[in-house]
Design goal:
Two copies of one chain form a homodimer.
Chain A: E1 5-7, H1 20-24, H2 29-38, E2 39-44, E3 49-51, E4 59-65, E5 68-73, E6 79-85, E7 105-108, E8 112-118, H3 119-128, H4 130-155, H5 159-175, E9 179-181, H6 186-193, H7 197-209, E10 213-216, E11 219-222, H8 225-234
Antiparallel strand pairs in A: 1-2, 2-8, 3-7, 4-8, 5-6, 5-7, 9-11, 10-11
Helix pairs in contact in A: 3-4, 5-8, 6-7
Chain B binds a DNA duplex (30 and 30 nucleotides) through residues 158-159, 185-187, 195-202, 205, 217.
Amino acid sequence: MDKTFHTPCLGESCGDCGFRSTLFNCLSSEQLEKLSKSKDLIKAKKGETIIRQGEKIKDFIFLRIGLAKLTRISSDGKEQLVGIARPKDFIGLLSLFSSSTHQYSIIAIEDSEYCVVNFETINKLIQENGKLAYSLLQKISLVSDLLLGTKLDIDNRQLRGRIAFILSLFSKDIYESTKFNLPISRKEIGELIDMRVENVVRILSEFRKDKIISIEGTTIEILQPDKLEWIKNHG
Amino acid sequence: MDKTFHTPCLGESCGDCGFRSTLFNCLSSEQLEKLSKSKDLIKAKKGETIIRQGEKIKDFIFLRIGLAKLTRISSDGKEQLVGIARPKDFIGLLSLFSSSTHQYSIIAIEDSEYCVVNFETINKLIQENGKLAYSLLQKISLVSDLLLGTKLDIDNRQLRGRIAFILSLFSKDIYESTKFNLPISRKEIGELIDMRVENVVRILSEFRKDKIISIEGTTIEILQPDKLEWIKNHG
DNA sequence: TATCAATATTGATAAATATCAATGGATAAA
DNA sequence: TTTATCCATTGATATTTATCAATATTGATA
C-alpha cells in the first residue's frame, strides 16, 4: 500500500456514494454522518496491493472503481488466483467476520479506487441497525456464492471449456463488450482456471486460428460469440 | 422429505440446545421463547434429502446430529458433490440471504437430526438483535471459507494427493479416528474431488498394497498417517 | 431364493494435460 | 547500450488421467 495516496471522497457524505443504494440505504442521517467521517477514499494503481493475506483486519474495504484480483498462497506455497472482482462484488467482505486476519490478498489489476471504513465503526452500526446487518448478510452470501459457483463451474470443464468460460466472463460479466483488454497475464489466467501457461497460450492460439477470437497483444476480440458459448458449454 | 417424521425437540426450549452457545447465546428469554415455539426437530435417515436444490427457502436448517452432503446439479446437468458437512458447519446458512431458492441440495449421509426454524422468525430476530446478526455473519463467513478453501486446496493436487486429502479429512476432521466407515460411495468421492470412479478405486487399492491403509468393504483404517500426510502434501 | 440394478474392481488403451527445451519480445535496471 | 528478467510462443515428449470393456460383488426387492 506504499504508493497509494489519500484524497477526500468525491461525495461529501457516504449518502452520495453509489454504494448507498445497495448497502447503506438503510442508515439514518446520523449514522451516515458517522460513517462519512470515519472513511477514507484511496486510489490504487494497477498492480498495487490493496490487502495482503495475513494482515490483521482493521477496516472494511469497498472497491468503488476498477478491477481487482483475489489471490492466496496455497498450502504448497504457490500463488493461487481465487477470482476476479468488480466493485459491485463486495469482495472486501470475504472472511471478514470469521477471522482476525485477511485470508486472501486483493490486488488491483486496473487503476482502482476503494473506500476504507474502520471496522469497529461498522460493527457498532450493525448492533444498532438490523437492516444493515441483513444487507451485509446478503452481500456476503452473494460474493461467496459467486466465487464458489465459479470454481465449481470451472471444475466441470476441460481446458478448452475453461478458456471459453473465462473469455466469456471477461466479455459478458466484466467489460460488457466483445472487445476488451485482458487485465491479467496468461500465467494468471492459468492460475485462475487451473492450467499451465503453455496450454493457455496454445488454446488461445487455437481459437485464433479457428477465427473464434482475434488477438492483438493484450487486446482480445470475440468474433464468434455463439461458437465460444458452445465450447464453454460442451467443449 | 417424505419419510421424515416430526418429534418434539429434546430440550423444552432452544436455550437448552447445543447450538445456543454458538448462535443463540445472545437472545433474550422472550426471544428464545419465540424461537422455541416456531421450530421443529426432524429426523432424516441416511440417504434422505433434507433440502432440494431449487426449492423455495422457507426455513432455516440446523444440522444437529449426523452428517450430510452438499450437492448441486452442475450447468451440464451432472450431479456435483460440493462438500461434506457436520453439525457445527452450519451448512444450512449457505446462500440463504442471497437467493429465494436453495442453491444446493442437502442430503443425509448418516442418520441425522436437524432443526427447522421459520425463516421469517429469524429475520425478525435479526432486525431486533444486532448480536444475532453478527453471529450469523460469522457463521456464514466460516462455512463459505471452509467450502471454498477446501475446493482450492483440492485443485492444487493431483489424484493421489486428492485421495490422501479426503481420507485425512474423514479421519481427522470428521471422525477423529484412524478407523472409520466411509459414508459415501467411491463414485461420490470422485464427484467430490473431481476424478473418475475407476481412479478412486485404483488409488485406494494402491494405498492398500503399499500398506498405507487397510480396506474392508466400507471400513477404512489408516495404518501410516505420516505417509498419508506426506502424499497429501507432496503427492 | 432368484433377479435386477447399482457399485466396485481390474486391465488395456486412448486422450488430455504437463513438462522440458528453445526462442523472440518486451520491459526494467545497471 | 547492455544485461537481466519476465512474459509469450511453439514443438517434442513424458506423464497423468479418462475411457472402454469385462467381470465381480453387493444390496434391495419381488
